[in-house]
Specification:
This protein is an alpha+beta fold and 295 residues long. 41% of the residues lie in helices and 14% in strands. The chain starts with a strand and ends with a helix.
Length: 295
């Protein structure tokens, strides 16, 4: 189904019930000590979660050379790919997606789990049908917090990372809310609130927390949607909404949404750029690992 620098994903059928699963086959010889520790944490976390909007880990098998993760197969691909294929896409549908992701994150946060890498690539669909569930995937950077603990490790993806991480400050589960705010912004207009080809300039913009809602892209979007985004993309994490509060926001629970179809032309462009950059990153990683192997 796919091959990366450290793992190959294959489709497998359960011999007894004939159910189909994805098996992530990880070459243990390619893993550094910190990678092995992260993998152990990922498995530990995924074994603790059962939610309709979080990808399921069925079981794992550990052998001398390979570590196998049997994971729920996501036959619908990435959420953003599905959206740009639609002839009609409105605010009501976008709201449904954000509500489900926020509910899954709230579930995690209640259990002391922080994802830390929420982005479009990690929002997948269970199948090809219109009623397929959106699910959060890839808990490779997730962290299980104990009570009253904070994180300091710099991690995440440029464009979605919270300002407190960039500042090198202590942070908590509110970093996931920031990332969700960025995704909410993108899903409603087709481009991110903070963007620059230069990472230093991008990070400066994120730390400033300054963004707007340019016309005509935001003209059809309700004021309630903008209000929710404003309260998620607050630089001070103490002032930022929690995921539980997101679920209680008028845009999520009320009827104040626009019926106008959203223009997805910008999202199509964004999706192409996103996948192009991801392809370059994978190629660079593979080349770097190949050079290391030769050494």
């Amino acid at each position: 189904m796919g091959t990366g620098s450290f793992a190959t994903v294959k489709k497998a059928t359960h011999k007894e019930d004939k159910s189909v699963w994805a098996v992530k086959c990880i070459n243990k010889s390619n893993l550094a000590a910190e990678d092995s520790a992260a993998l152990e944490t990922e498995v530990d976390i995924m074994n603790q979660v059962t939610h309709p909007n979080i990808i399921t880990l069925k079981e794992v098998f550990d052998t001398k050379k390979t570590f196998y993760m049997v994971i729920e197969i996501m036959g619908g691909g990435e959420l953003f790919d599905r959206i740009v294929e639609k002839e009609k896409y409105g605010e009501t549908e976008a709201r449904s997606v954000i509500r489900k992701v926020a509910d899954a994150l709230a579930y995690c946060h209640e259990r002391g789990i922080v994802h830390r890498d929420l982005k479009p690539e990690n929002l997948l669909l269970s199948g090809p049908d219109d009623d397929a569930e959106v699910k959060i995937a890839d808990f490779g950077l997730a962290k299980l917090l104990k009570e009253e603990t904070l994180m300091q490790t710099a991690c995440g993806t440029p464009g979605y990372v919270a300002p407190e991480i960039l500042e090198g400050a202590n942070y908590d589960s509110s970093v996931d809310v920031w990332s969700l705010g960025v995704i909410t912004y993108i899903i409603l207009c087709g481009f991110p609130p903070f963007y620059d080809e230069n990472n230093a300039a991008l990070f400066a913009a994120i730390k400033s927390g300054s963004f707007d809602y340019p016309s005509p892209y935001w003209d059809p979007v309700s004021e309630e949607a903008k209000d929710l985004i404003n309260k998620m993309l607050i630089v001070d994490p103490k002032e930022r909404l929690t995921c539980k509060q997101v679920l209680e926001h008028p845009w999520i629970v009320g009827d104040a949404v626009s019926d106008t179809n959203l223009d997805m032309s910008e999202l199509k462009k964004f999706n192409i750029r996103r996948k192009f950059k991801a392809g370059i990153a994978v190629a660079k990683m593979a080349a770097a690992f190949g050079a290391m192997s030769k050494d």
